[in-house]
Amino acid sequence: IMHAYSKSCIQDLKIKKIVNATEEYENKFEEEVEYFRIKVKDEENVKLVKWFEETSNFIHKAIERGENVLV
User: Using CA atoms, how far apart are residues 67 and 57, in angstroms rounded to an integer?
Assistant: First the structure.
């Protein structure tokens, strides 16, 4: 989460998209970065598979455009 909250890191790595799969951390740079938000608890029993296709599409579209993604 440190990188997602570091403006200099996002700028240095030219991050254009972020996948935020947290319940407690808000999207910090919405004016500069496009987010894909999945509000889930960080617990062992959480089933993430239901978000794989949508998340994968978000990442692949960004890659096709030459955009860097932070996951």
Answer: 13
- The residue count of the chain comes to 71
Strand order through the sheet with 34-37: 34-37, 15-20, 68-70
Q: What is the pLDDT of residues 11-64, one digit of tens each?
A: 999 999 999 998 889 999 999 999 999 988 877 788 888 889 999 999 999 999
For the chain, helix (H) and strand (E) counts, in that order, are: 2, 3
Enter the pTM of the model. 0.87
Q: Which amino acid is at 57?
A: N
